[in-house]
Each structure stands twice: as C-alpha cells, then as structure tokens.
Hints:
There is one protein chain. The chain has 255 residues and is an all-alpha fold. It folds into 2 domains: 92 residues, no CATH class; 136 residues, no CATH class. It is 69% helix and 0% strand. The protein is globular.
Amino acid sequence: MLILMFLVGTLFGSFFNVCILRIPKDESIIYPSSHCDYCKNKIKWYDMIPLISYIILRGKCRYCGEKISSQYFFMEILSGLMFFTIYLKYGYQLLTLKFIIFISLLIVISIIDIDTTDVYLCTTLPGIISGFIFVLIDAVGNNDVMGYLFAVIISTGLIILINIITEMFIRLPAVGMGDAEVFVICGLFMGSKFGLLMLFMAVVSGGIVGIVLIVFKIKDKIDYMPFVPFITASSIITILFGQNILNFYNKFNLL
C-alpha cells in the first residue's frame, strides 16, 4: 500500500506542476491537454508516465528535443514522498486524505509564491472551502470543532498585530492578504493546538531567514520574501511531528 501511495502521489505531482505553471498565466488547468511549451506538440500518454518518462527521454521533448524543466521530475518525487509519508504516519483513515489535500494545496501555493511572489485566490479558495467541509464532517461526527474556529480567529488576529508592528517600523505590512488566506486554511485543517504551533514555527523561521538576508544585504528590508514556503514547511513538520514537539515542551514544563 505504501508503494501504491507513492505512485499515486507521483501522478498527482504531475498535475500539481500543471497548476503551478498555468495558474500564474491565467490559463485553464484542464484545457488544452499537456503539450510541449516550445513546439506545442501534444504529449502522448506514454510520455507522461511519472518519473519514468522523464528519465527515458532524458528530460527532453520527444519531438523538438528542447529541455523539459526538471521541476516536473522533482515535483513528482516530492508529491510521491508526501503521499507516502502521510499515509505511513496516519494509515488508512479520513485524516490521511485530509492532510494530503492540505499539504498538496500548500505545495502548489508555495511554489507559485516563490516563482511569482503572488498568492492567487483560485488556489486559496479551494483550500478554505475544503477546510470548512472537513470541519463540518467533524461536527457531524460530534467532534469539538471550536478549536478550528479558534485557530482561524487567533491566526488572523496575530497577522493583523504583526502587520501593525511592521508598518510602524518599515511602513509596510509583513504579511500579505494571500498569506493571511493561507493561515486561514491552516487553521481550518489543523485546529488550534497544531495551528498555533505551526504559526509560531513559520513566523520564527521566516523572521530568522529574513533578518539573515537583510544583514548580509542579500535582500533589502522592503523587498518581498515569499512566506508561504515557511508556512508549508512548518505545516509538514507539525503534521508529522507536532505531537512529539508538544510532548517535549510539556515534559520540561516549557509550554
């Protein structure tokens, strides 16, 4: 089953890459079908087998010989490993599907954020809607859902506070509206306990990296730094090791 999950993940990884490349161009993610960006030839099904086709074709188009972005290959590996790892952690249950959808959305949003410095509503809205659906499923199952709503309120409040503080010093908000939408998604999918842990790790790691970049003059203090990758990395760590981290802090009375 683990191998099957990896293979399914690679298939979805190929689709995720289509989303990453087409959404910023305002193109449909369904039509036209996959084609070479250079010669425009339609790619046959046997040239779209995840990982294998890329290796056989040596990363080049079968028709024109132009190089295919290695992003396809690495996205397929990343997605395969993500499906594999989440299933390994949570097994055969609804929580596995929930976290696979969640992390898949974050990965797509992250790479688009890195490439374009933009977070698109067409990527965050499906996350917010699906997050609410899972909250409703929990509610139907008589589970406590207040933690999810609490996480959304707290994360939104902290973002507003962070922006007020940064605007006082550099006259620019530290967190954009798109980042705020991503935090809402995180709150809906992870709830208060894991959501706040993720928020803490994302803000701290993003702040440290930002300070280092400014100190070494790699970036100016007014330059935009993609923040969604920090949210995504923190979310993955929280989903896989969040309870262990909280247990560690509780053990030493640090939390």
